[in-house]
Amino acid sequence: HSLVSKVKTVQIMQLISVDCLLQLLYEEWANYSVFYKYQPIGLVRKYFGEKIGLYFAWLGLYTQMLIPASVVGVIVFLYGCATVDDNIPSMEICHPKNNITMCPLCDRVCSYWKLSTACGTARASHLFDNPTTVFFSIFMALWAAMFMEHWKRRQMRLNYEWDLTGFEEEEDHPRAEYEFKVMQKSLRKDKKSHHKVSTMEKLTCRDRLPAYMANIVMMLLMIGVTFAIVFGVILYRISTKAALHMSSSSITRNHVQLTVKTTAAIINLVVILILDEVYGAVARWLTVLEIPKTDKSFEERLIFKTFILKFFNAFTPIIYIAFFRGRLVGRPGSYLYVFESYRMEECAHGGCLMELCIQLSITMLGKQLIQNNLFEIGIPKLKKLIRFIRSKQGAFQEEERQKKLQRYETDHFLEPFAGLTPEYMEMIIQFGFVTLFVASFPLAPLFALLNNIIEIRLDAKKFVTELRRPVAARAKDIGIWYNILKGVAKVAVIINAFVISFTSDFIPRMVYQYTYSPDGSMHGFVNHTLSYFNVSHFQEVTVSLFFCLYRYKDYREPPWSATPYEISKEFWTVLAVRLAFVIVFQNIVMLMSDIVDWLIPDIPKDISLQIHKEKILLVDHFMKEEQRKIHILESRVSTGSKEVFSRSNNNITTMTHSCSQLHTKCTKASNASNDVFIVQS
């Protein structure tokens, strides 16, 4: 029955004309009003080919899998909202009787401040830094593994439905650029040897060595540019913070942290959007220098370089905030400085997790709204308008309006198809935002889901109305993108382990509650994490002091101990637990991911049974065909033997008749002559 239904489906698809198919795709696929419907993947494959059909099938499954992740992320966020009033550390910070005075956050212009002023930051940090964060990180790691397995099953089903199970990619022909270089190499050898070389030439690693060296140098240079820009943003935050503290407006001074964080994140976003375009062009130029032999090799090398550059561009500011900011500050009296005048920036008392959340959310939402949506809508329309103005149709606009253009004429004014690399790339980067730092931003899956619901219809509309119809290409998988997804999912486990362990206060809270707390509760945790500093130890005191002891966040010995300001044993205890947590978390989650991979079969059971039945039917058909051939051969052999027997009888009769005639002649000869020897002979 399934075979019959597949044949009927193919017959129906063949009856649909191209124009009707395009109109059907526009109404049922490239339309925002049908966002709640499943995509007509069969029609997409019929019009655009298997390669583009697989992309939209993958995007649809990815969007569908984001639904449970979004639900769990919203639950985690709501749990933080519901328990923020019961969070003891934030209650201690916000308590009106709390009179803890903290050391200045910057030199010269920053004054001493009360810990209670960090109440809002501490309460906001609890929304994302609560006990459910660990659970959500484990869930997202397993979610990534389940997504990869479900895609393999979906891909296998599509391969079966599209008759790709036995499809083998043909060997690509060499690119024209590659053959041109090979021909130049052969001509140079011919000139040196003064005769034509008959051996087949090819480009070796030695021929490509200059291109490889240029690739390495340029890749390192581009990554260095990314680091330099991040360093520039750091200097911007330090200098802006000092300038705002000098402001005469009390409102400006009270909102220094929020202003600096938000503006720095926006600057990072603008730089990321600009460098994304630059890095895409650089990656293509470097790939052209390598002169890959085939189009497939060219595409894979281009994808790899583009992914590396854009990954560093998008995630370097986030990695700095998560793992480096506030780690290299030092202590009061011996701070670390940049250019001998800028003190390294510190995290707020609520930790760097809140700043990480702000940076991640602005970067993710900005890339999705500006780059993925506005650019995809605006740039093709702008290019189409420019081509229209420059073309003859723009000169004879009135004349062209009077007649109906053919399909190929209207398609000429559309944007040429540039491949699926940009479409996959933006989704892979989004997958990184969803999985890599999800411990700091549990709402990331929700924003990705909302974006993808629009992205599917936006891409569909772009393919149907804004781009020329591409040449259909057959493919049975998504190629190198699957390996990139798998690598990102593995790296996400490690990064989330470090975020929970080193960026959040989860480990210090657990260590305090089960090791140092007198009653096993979180009361006194804030005081436990603050060290004392005697202001009289400053070389220069630039502010008026009412008392000498102030606090700063660190695990160090007090000034009255035998080893003042040295790292305390609590620091080493917390560090040991953090490292142990990273190792245990990483191994447990990866083991669970492997178990999920093992439990979920790559091929759906019904597809496996159908393939097995078809193989049995195919073998039976071959056996019957062979038996029919053997039966025909045997019948021909038996018929041929009878003919041979009758021919043999005729030959024997003829020979007997000839012998009798010969015998008669011999008898007559013997009677005529007495020479018996002659007659016998």
Summarize it.
The chain has 681 residues and is mainly alpha-helical. 70% of the residues lie in helices and 3% in strands.
**Largest β-sheet summary:** 2 strands, antiparallel
Our estimate of the beta-strand percent is under 5%
Principal-axis shape: elongated
Distance between the termini: 84 Å
Which runs of at least 5 residues are low in confidence (pLDDT < 50)? 541-546, 668-681
Oligomer: single chain
User: What is the number of E strands?
Assistant: 8
Decide which structural class fits the backbone. Answer: mainly alpha
Average pLDDT: 79
Subcellular location: Membrane
InterPro entries: Anoctamin (IPR007632), Anoctamin_TM (IPR049452)
Protein name: Anoctamin
Main location: membrane
Report on this model:
Helix 11 packs across helix 13 (353-390) and helix 17 packs antiparallel against helix 18 (444-466). The chain has helices at residues 2-15, 18-28, 41-48, 50-83, 88-94, 119-128, 132-161, 176-193, 205-245, 250-254, 256-290, 295-323, 353-390, 392-395, 397-402, 407-411, 421-435, 444-466, 480-503, 506-516, 525-528, 569-599, 605-672, 676-680, and strands at 101-102, 113-114, 330-331, 334-335, 337-338, 342-343, 530-534, 549-553. 26% of the residues are buried. It has a two-stranded antiparallel sheet with strand order 1-2. It has a two-stranded antiparallel ribbon with strand order 3-4. The protein has 681 residues and is mostly helical. One of its GO terms (cellular component) is plasma membrane. Residues 44-614 form the Anoctamin transmembrane domain. It is found in: Membrane. It holds the Pfam family Anoctamin. The chain crosses the membrane at residues 55-79, 133-151, 216-238, 258-282, 302-323, 427-450.
